[in-house]
Amino acid sequence: MPHEHVSYLELLARGAATEAYDRPVLLARASGAGPEALAELEEAKQLALRVRAELEGRRRREAELSALFATAHDLAGLRDLDAVLRAIVQRARSLLGTEVAYLSLNDPAAGDTYMRVTEGSVSARFQQVRLGMGEGLGGLVAQTARPYVTEDYFEDPRFQHTRTIDAAVRDEGLVAILGVPLSIGSQVIGVLFAADRRARVFEREQVALLGSFAAHAAVAIDTANLLAETRTALAELERANGIIREHSAVIERASEVHDRLSELVLRGGGVHDVADAVSEVLGGTVEFTETEAGPARRADGHAVRDGDDWVAAVSAGGETLGALVLHGQPELDPVDQRTLERAALVTSLLLLARRSAGEAEQRVRGELLDDLLDAPDRDRRLLRERAARLRTDSEAPHVVLAARIDRADGDPDGDAGRRESADRQRLWSAASHLAATRHGLASARDGGTVLLLPLGPGESAADLARQTARNLGGTLREPVTVGASAPVRTLLDRPDQVAVAYEEARRCLDVLVLLHRSGQGAAAEDLGFLGLLLADGRDIDGFVDRTVGQVVGYDRRRGTDLVRTLEAYFASGMSPARTKDELHVHVNTVAQRLERVGRLLGPDWQSPARALEIQLALRLHAMSAAVTGR
User: Fold this and answer.
1) Average model confidence (pLDDT) for the chain?
2) Any idea of the CA torsion for 370, 371, 372, 375, to the nearest 10 degrees?
3) Quick check: pTM over 0.85?
4) What is the dihedral of CA 328, 334, 335, 341, to 10 degrees?
5) Which 3 state secondary structure label does DSSP give 156?
6) Which of 107, 228, 468, 507 is such that its CA lies 20 to 30 A from the CA of 356?
7) Cβ of 304: how many Cβ atoms within 10 Å?
8) Is the model's pLDDT at 620 over the cut of 60?
9) Which are the contacts of 314, defined by CB distance < 8 A and separation ≥ 6?
């Protein structure tokens, strides 16, 4: 074998650069080799270069395949989708030796493809660009499911150029771009790109290499998505199992409370026993309240949240009897809410049962009051025994009260009779309950209700009337007007006084309505001179004392002349100048006396209504003084 051939083998063996293969020819020419020898060397050189190119290609393909398998192995070990996508882009850039690599995913809902991950990108606009199907190189790849390559993007007419996409590509400075589809079966899920910022020819082998890598990448993406869906499904299953376990525990508690409530009803338990049982089951504190149920009253029987508490209305037949309030459990699941609602229902049944027993007693109380009003000549001993059985103190002073619901509006449905009947029933029920709690009597009469209630210590008839109006109005949530009689001191010694007192209470009630004071309570003493006319006993001294008693008492204690000054003032048409002439004093003296009167009687003493009452009281005082000589 010639020496020069050995030289080419050595060059091949040590992987010399292409320039080194010219050296044997140059040395032979320098040593004076002939044309035949030089031609033979040139042929050997070309053969060696072909062998070198083949070896180089095989080494490159071996390296690419090795890198491809290594990448596929690495992708198979990834479980997080973001990590998979980043690894795909990084390996693509490394395999093809490009400056930039990026990946877009299709958005079926929007009908376009969007940039998902980039490697080597420096433009924020480019990283956020979206491509419609068929727009730009990437949109074309996503639409056709075929790889596309361009040596110079802006000079390539095969793509649909848009202002947005071109601006993003120009902002990134890309020139040569290769894009291959990411496909799962026949479905394209995105595009994998490799790009350079200079003109470059992507060889067929590089296109095939990126395509093979994209196939592995698509499988890795699909696997990551499936794993994510599986993890989500498992998490949802775990949550569902937890909910089932919680519901099972709640249902057991509900069953327990149902058994306990049934037992309570059977053994005659009370409302507070129900509250205690539910408190123990729900883990909070349940209490029964007779006050307004608030939002629960409008919740159609459902338990509702009220701040940090839960409230379930206790109602029957449209009437709110109270509420069960759960404290200490701001979060309550639906089954526990139902438990609270069931307890409210049981409570309403217990209250109705108690009410039925109470109504029997109320009827007896009503019958006794009817006898006092209609048949006062009955045997007093029997009346006293009946009163004692009802725990009514017949020796205490009592007040007769007439109560009525007065509606300001008419009946738009034209069913006034039925509505008035329902109002009378509700009023009688509430009044009977009030009478039972105060050891009094109540009966339905004359379209309203009459009550006979004992006076409390330091309580006046007017106080009792106002309190009764508030109590009944609050219970019924309707304005209830109450008129009261003067106190009846001897209830059973003279039973006929009850009927007389009832007529006085009715007159007081009618006057309140005429004075547009519906929904209030008052006695004759509250109505000034009208009360004097209404009262059966004509308590003149009481009227005078209530109206000008402070002025009379001041004159008596201080020796002043305020009463005479008032008489002169009214006689002079309320003119201080004429008053001072009548009294023969200085006008300043009149002003000082009137100022003192104002402090004693109140700032409104000269108002027309008060002035009329004061003048009447002064006349009655003068008449009384003349009669008694005082």
Assistant:
1) 77
2) 120
3) no
4) 70
5) coil
6) 468
7) 18
8) yes
9) 288, 293, 320, 321, 322, 323, 324, 344, 347, 348, 351
440 vs 455: CA distance, rounded Å: 10
Neighbours of 210 (CB within 10 A): 25
* Cα separation of the two ends of the chain: 169
Report pLDDT for 68.
58
> How many whole angstroms separate alpha carbon 78 and alpha carbon 562?
106
C-alpha pair distances (Å), 297 with each of 293, 302, 350, 419, 422: 5, 9, 19, 21, 20
Q: What is the 3-state secondary structure (H, E, C) of 439-492?
A: CCEEEEECCEEEEEEECCCCCCHHHHHHHHHHHHHHHHCCCEEEEECCCECCCC
C-alpha to C-alpha distance for 121 and 89, rounded to whole angstroms: 11
For residue 26, which of 41, 16, 12 has the smallest C-alpha distance? 41
27 CB burial (10 A radius; 0-12, 13-18, 19+): middle
Q: How many CA atoms lie within 13 A of 415 on its CB side?
A: 6
The answer for residues whose C-beta is within 8 angstroms of residue 431's C-beta and 6 or more apart is 403, 442, 449, 451, 472
Query: Which parts of 96-138 are beta strand (E)?
Result: 100-107, 112-119, 130-132
Residue length of the chain: 630
Rounded to whole angstroms, how far apart are CA atoms 89 and 71?
11
Phi/psi for 118 (5° steps) reads -130, 155
The residues, any chain, with a CB within 8 Å of residue 287's CB and separated by 6 or more, are: 275, 324, 325, 327
pLDDT band (50, 70, 90) for residue 148: very high
Q: Is the pLDDT of residue 556 over 80?
A: yes
Which of 371, 397, 393 minimizes the C-alpha distance to 382?
371
Residues 182-206 pLDDT 10s: 888 888 888 999 999 999 888 888 8
What does the alpha-carbon distance between residue 452 and residue 373 come to, in Å, rounded to a whole number?
11
Instruction: Kindly write down the DSSP assignment for every residue of 196-250, as one continuous string.
Output: ESS--PPPHHHHHHHHHHHHHHHHHHHHHHHHHHHHHHHHHHHHHHHHHHHHHHH
What the block records as the tokens of 526 is 């509250």
The greatest distance separating any two alpha carbons of the chain, rounded to the nearest whole angstrom, comes to 177
Round to whole Å and give the CA distance between 80 and 87. Answer: 11
pLDDT digits (tens, 9 = 90+) for 377-398: 666 676 666 666 666 776 788 8
CA dist., res. 435 & res. 454, Å (int): 9
